[in-house]
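Sample entry follows:

:::
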Amino acid sequence: MITVFTATYNREYLIGQLYQSLLSQTSYDFEWLIVDDGSTDSTDELIRQWKNNLNPFPIQYIQQKNGGKHRAINRGVQEAKGDAFFIVDSDDYLIDNAIQLIEDWWKNIASDSSLAGVSGLKANKDMSVVGDAVVFDGYVDATNLERPRYGLNGDKAEVYKTAILRKYPFPEFEGEKFLTEAVVWDKIAYDGYKIRWYNQIIYICEYREDGLTHQGMNIFFQNPKGWWLYMRQSSLFSGKSDGRDYPAKLNYYEWLHIRLTDREFMDILCVNREELEFIKRYIKNTIESIGKNIAVYGLGQRGQKLLRLYRETPITVKYVLDKNKKNVTSNYNTVVFEINYNGIKEFATMLFVLANNYKEGQEYPLAHISQGHGGYNLGIILVQDSMQAILKCSNLGIAYDYDMRVC
């Protein structure tokens, strides 16, 4: 059986579309497990009303104190009756045969101990795939960390084995209500578990202004302990950790130096006063020497998302380039849009170029960027997702001892 899991907070006005999509399924071998994360609207009355209906599937409804989606997932994993755990957000819904497809896929992986689950694609309401177009037919087995090589960027509709999720609970930090799901998905991948990724849409989503995605960097600033865990883990899993996490520590301090006290930094990063002062000096000297201007290559859906996020950071995007003229229509304040890639002499002053939607084997007309500037290498940065792009931007901005030509 499949557990369709939904964490909800004040979505009484919206969750009905998900309920209707579950009623429309071609297979009902699932339960709907809802964890209400402290809603203050009438969500409880609505769900209890639905439970009294003659539903073709059971509904389990749990209320808890508001603690964030990751805590709701932890509770849901413990309460789930299904062998497969499918997270479906309260503002999204499923296509009519989504459950049937997952059941068919599941039969082929249930007994394979190397696979943590299966996944379909997410699409926007216009049926355009979220993220890049995948570069395979049928399916591919890959870890969450290997997704970019198959065009699996952007949100996907993963269904994990409940037994595996019970071994990987989300860490919970006192006073913090957000932790990116990548912390757990990447840890599962790092330990060798793969997902069977299918090139088929099963899930329809909408990124709403009251959702987590639209909170941008603020949600990380407000949850510094969880963000540090993610940054430290990302450094380790990428193979760029120096054993003492100094690149990640430098990056973290640069982002949060105006938000946390020295004592908080020392506690979170596990550094002493001498180490913290070294971090401060290093960042100050580097920022003063090279600045942080960059150019963004590609202004599609993800490129525009990056620009929105950059507005909340100390990074200056001076140029955005796109060969498709229809994409060069928006006004992002001080950002200058250009079409002629080879004609911008100012590239010599850019710290690096951020290439969106990169695909292996694809050539970019920006080879001349690999000139030196101020003793640092310029380079084309190959983006996996928006948050990684920001982290890489900050990484290169303070000139860690990385190979900065291609990252």
Q: What stands out?
A: The CA atoms of residues 21 and 94 lie 6 Å apart. The chain has two domains: 2-213, 216-397.
